[in-house]
Amino acid sequence: MKKKMVLSTLLGVTLVASLAACGGQTEQPKSTAAATSAAAGGPKTKLTYWTVDRHDADYMKDVIKKFNETNKDNIEVEMTVLADNFNQSIDIAFASNQAPDIFRTNDFSGFVKKGYLQPINDMMTDEMKKRYDKLLVEELNMVDSKIYSLPHTGQYWRLIYNVDLFQKAGIKDPPKTVKELVEDAKKITEAGKDIGAYGFAENFKNANSAFARIVNPIGSFSGTSEVDGYNYKTGQFDFSVYKPIAEALRQMKQDGSMLPGVESLDIDPLRAQFAAGKIGMYFNHSGEPGVYQNQFPTKINWSAALPPTIDGSQQGTVSVIAGNYIGISKNTTNKDKAWKFLQYIYNLDFQKEYHEKGFGISIVPDVNSGAKKPSIPGIEGFLPSKFDALYAPTPLSVTEAKVEGNKSGNAILKYMMEGGDVDKVLNDLTTRYNAGLEKARAAGDTKMKPNPSFDPNKLQGSLAK
Fold it and tell me: Do residues 202 and 214 make contact, with C-beta atoms less than 8 angstroms apart?
């Protein structure tokens, strides 16, 4: 009884703003699965579906309404949007035997380790397995070859730039090299003095996030085998490959090309400044068109381009963050009917419409090849290219939990602001992160192993032609 009271209290706080988007629901979510009620055509099986996504809630409400009205298995899905504390809510729900039947795999590895998810290998048809074959990745949507969730959309990383400021500075095209990035930032800052504009910014208040937003797309597209400093070939961390990028950040800071105060800048204030025409360039992902349509409406002319590379050669691919979407509770008593809903969501027609309406850019090749261009302004530069690819997750988070001293982003931020011996900084990070990785492996926190055959160049064309 105490656990139920805790769950009801948490959900009562979290759901106030979200229930209106789910059809005016006023009662608390019922426990998994077995709630049935008499209805025309026989008893209905009610399934609960929890999601963290707010941006598509109204659309998904209509999708689920259509499923409830048209499915021939008397299934009724009830959606609940948990905008905050989603992972904690899932933990409490399972602890109190009130878990949803279907839920967003927001913490995939954590949910699998805790035994929350049902493997779906045996439910997938051969055709479905073939459709998703190249998108199934260990620790991303499956563990020990057991598939728990399937991919849907992804975050495509780009250089976002103000076209008006580029024209004002006499720059025709976005930079193709790190050197050009530095030069263009300086030109934009000089040309934008009269309006208080600067060439470059990033949300360095969260230094690790800012560092990753910059070095990951540049590094992987340049042909390095690293993401998050982790080398897939060797199975070790090596931050030395990021030296040209770290030096470029330091140079832009010295040149005065960065928006003042970037060291305390968060992502939404950055977006507000960009929307106001005060920032020439920054790195982020394909969620930005929605931001500038709804959250920070802007009149500036802006666009997105593939990131520059270290030397101009495009020998790799830009790593896409994606891999899983929704899954079935291990505790549900209606596994087969929950799978009926997953089949409805993981089909080509739904995925094409979701992509075309601009709620997210698909990573599924047959969607990308057949779907119309999304209608949302600014989306063009983010659409999948042959230079985008799905990478396995790195052991960064479990490694950083074991790392002593400054994390990578803070170390680079300190160098960017104060200077120093960049080689020493990067070598120190490499040493400390590999020590942390060794501890994480010894504790069984990661199963990532060296992949000597890994070649980012061979991934070109895997998501789109």
Answer: yes
